[in-house]
Input
Amino acid sequence: MENNILLKTDSYKISHHKQYPPETTTVYAYLESRGGDYPEQVFFGLQYILKKHLVGKLVTKERIEQAVEFWNKHFGYEIVDKEMWEYIADKYDGHLPIRIKAVPEGTVVPTGNVLMTIENTDPKCAALTTFLETILLQVWYPITIATNSREIKKILLQSLVKTGDPTVIKTQLHDFGFRGVSSYETSAIGSCAHLTSFTGTDTISGCILAHNYYLADEMVAFSIPASEHSTMVSWTKEKEREAYENMLDAYPQGIIACVSDSYNIYEACEHIWGELLHDKVLARDGTLVIRSDSGDPLEVLERLLVILYDKFGGHENEKGYKVLDEHVRLIQGDGVNMKSIKDIVNLLERTGFSTENLSFGSGGGLLQKFDRDTMKFAIKCSYVEINGIGGFAVAKNPITDKGKRNKPGRLKLIKDSDNNFRTISSIDQSDEYENAEDQLVTVYENGQLLCDYSFDQIRGQV
Output
């Protein structure tokens, strides 16, 4: 049943074919973010949805019968538009007569613009447009994650330009979110979206999705050997030094990360790392990244930076900020989100330390703590055609919430003379609309994928 397109929609949509006006031949809808926390968004994730759910032969006699049986039991009586689905199976060999236009994946578009349009290509299948809203609107999630990661990247990059080396930016925010999301699929989609801006992850499902759905032949993200509390406390508190030394011995080269707050992180940094293992850390061919995983990060990190600079030394860079010896760095892995990153970056700058001393690991704050209303995403019908009447614009405009008014008519996303994106309507800007070049491209038509973006292309756009 999971692969049956007739079952990939909200229950109430199965009844909508009877609710459109008689002789409706075209239903046209569009996707936009109507607001939220971000001034612009990264368009990403539609290609995954199309390849997984909408490409190819989807409607068969067997799937129709399976769905009819399910829906009849669900509603208690016959309700499915069998005529439309059987027509699709016969005339289109089960391919959906739908056209989807969208901005190229990876494009950054100001909030409030059209990002995608959907319409039926056969007049006998007008209800199919909004039937697909349920599965298509799930693109809100990868767009939101990609957008959030890009906004964090902007914060970190601005600080690195001010205080240190901007070339380290791609590894500054590491994905710890695999265990903190609701499903494997969520982890894959969210992690892949994050990787449009960064190259560090422990959520390998995102790498696999990039390979399977975005033509990624090479590895798209990387990780390092790192400890967790179980591998440290197994040595017991009395052998904490041995636990840390084992990390240095087990991985004599390269970058490693060691969680060091199992007992007393200040003592660990000052006496164990900073004294007992000091020479071994500096003699090692690589960097030890000490992970803080508890407490108030502003208080903890400020104190740790002072301790580590005192114990391991460093230098003041040409921008006037202190940089730890290259053998030692910190990672903050607890309570990390955009707000806490802003606060921590401000702390670093205020105390005279370069942002390159620290990287971040984020889980729930990176992949889970978002919903469709974070960016107020919606797909709304804006234009219909009816036999005997013609085509005309439609729009909701509730007096109780003007923010939910949708755009009327057919829509284009255009670039103005300053190369800025702007949405125009066949109704509100009818003269301009006719000749304007649409930045939305047809990515799907009648069951076929027409654009296949690579992950490298998307990263280049972002």
Observations:
- The CA atoms of residues 19 and 127 lie 9 Å apart.
- The two ends are 37 Å apart (CA to CA).
- The chain has a mean pLDDT of 97.
- The first strand starts at residue 24 and ends at 33.
